[in-house]
Amino acid sequence: MRPVVYLAGPINDATVQQAANWREVWAERLALLGYDYIDPFEAKSALRSKNYLGKNLDKVAIDSGLITSQEVIQHSLDMTEKSDIVVLNFLDVKRFNIHTIGTSAELVFATMYQDLKNKPRKYTIVLANDIYSSFFTLADKILSSEEQLFEYLEQRLLSEHNTKQLQ
After folding, report:
1. pLDDT (tens digit, 9 = 90+) per residue, 42-51?
2. Hey, what domains does the chain have and what are their CATH numbers?
């Protein structure tokens, strides 16, 4: 069974392109490495078809009837639950002036929420290159680039494979 990576990162305060493009590229790379992925930005196709170029994506999706605010939160919890690894992308948020509240909440969901529900915490990787938060210390790993992430995930998968072969 392939490990599942949840691609958490800014949506609401990003443009459709900023929220979707990196997820699409990373999804392809994850698949090539041997991972499955979960993309929380389900509304991207609908918003692209409407040629929406602004921000406030949660509000637009909610106002359009694509999702409710309660569903946004429940989906975050559900996707965290279904994943083996939660990757939290904070790369370039300061440079692009993107505020991200939901991604920080997902870090808490993946670590502390799991403990509260009497379940093991998820393995978490924070990517950040231009901001820092004390919340990041909740993560199992903090990296500063996309390349570091994929090198790390490749090594992690190889290590798990070698460990299984030894057993």
Report:
1. 655 666 666 6
2. 4-166 (3.40.50.450)
